[in-house]
Each structure stands twice: as structure tokens, then as C-alpha cells.
Amino acid sequence: MLNHFAKEVNIYLSRIEEIFHYGYFWCLDQCEYATDIMFKSREDLQSVYNDLVKHALLSFNCEDVMIFMGRKMHPAFSGEVVSDVKKRPQGIRIKHRMASNSIKMYDKYSVLRVETTINNPKEFKIFKETGDNQVKRWVPMGKNTANLYRYAQVSQAANKRYLDAVSLAEPRTEFIVEVERICNRVNSGNRVFSGMNPVAKETEKIFLAVMDGGNHINGFTNASIRTTLFPELAIDDKKVRNKTTRIMQ
Prior knowledge:
By secondary structure, the protein is α+β, with helices and mostly antiparallel strands. The chain is built from ten helices and nine strands.
């Protein structure tokens, strides 16, 4: 197919092939292979995407990047392994480079895309016939278009390993929204409820009382909470009971 297009462009190609007995040698200068994860909406993707980027940036070291690309750390490797994040009008992308090859993640509206780019295929192996005896063995991969299938295999495996690792991120966006909600002051009719201070000593005591394992056994009651909050006061005192009720509201 490529030779057909070449003859359409170069009218002397037939004469060159006749004299030198060969024409063009077709190779792959750069190969990109993408895996897309579809979300129902842009909002659904954005609710977790920032957490995925933070996880990838803070958790993945150079050894992890090598593993994503199907390699292992070796003293003979002289290249650099670098990770960086760029924020653009279209969105945020994180990129991990292993020498001249890379794997990156970015968002395209409602699509999460992981993409492997191969510029130097010799960093990877291909099982092919070599030598005069045509014995098959694993050798560094070249840029010949006949190796395109192997480019796809290497890249697809890299994308899958990366997505498996990113999926371990813990989304915190919803948690942050909920914390901000309970920390803000609320107006309900003629009443004003002050927000909760999550770092205050009093708040710590409330959380300890609510999260006590005994609540799973005996149930969650006003009495169990006020015993922990006000151990020095009479727990049957009406004022203490009302105060506990107001706190839990």
C-alpha cells in the first residue's frame, strides 16, 4: 500500500527500483497507542480525575515507570526517567518518560485516555528469526513496519499496567465536599447552626464517641454519647441530655 502511494508521488520510483533493485524502506518513526475509558459525563470524570493525577504523581517512582513499560531497573540503563504534570485549557495531563519513550494520561471531555508513545523501539524485544540459520530468538525491536504488531502488543500491555496501578487511587473529592459542607455555617429558618471545626479538641471527642466500637454492639444512643462527652457530669441531667442532642444535630 505504501509503495503504491510512493509511486503516485515519485514518478521515478520504477526506474530507481530497476537500477538499484530496491525502492523505499518503510519504517515507523513514532508510534502512539491509546486506551480510552469512557465516562457517562464530563462531571463524572472530573469527580475522580484530579485524585488519579495526584496518585500517579506522588506514588509512581522511576522503578514503577520502568515496570509500566515492561522493563526492569538495570545498571546498563543510561537514560532518564522523569514524570511531570502540565495544566492546559483542555485539561490536565501527566506524563512519564523513560528515555525517549513515554506513557501519559489525560482527559478529553468525558474520556480518560492513557497513551504509550514509542520513539526508540530498541528498548523493547521482539521474537523473530535472525542470522543465516533463521533461528527465532528475542532481539531488540527495530523500526520496520513489519514490527507494527509488536508495537501494539507492547503499548497495550503498558496501558493496562498503568490503568491497573491508577485504579488503586482513593478518590477524595467527594470527601472534601462533604467536609466543607459540615464545616460551613447553616441557616435554617430563624436558627443559625455554626459549622464544625474538624481540628478542635471538642470535635475530636465527638468523633471518638461516635466511632466507638461499642456502638455496633449496644446501638447508638444519646446516653452512650453523653457518657463519653461529659464523664464528669451527671449523665441523667436534663440539660446534659439536651446539650448532647443539640451537638449531634
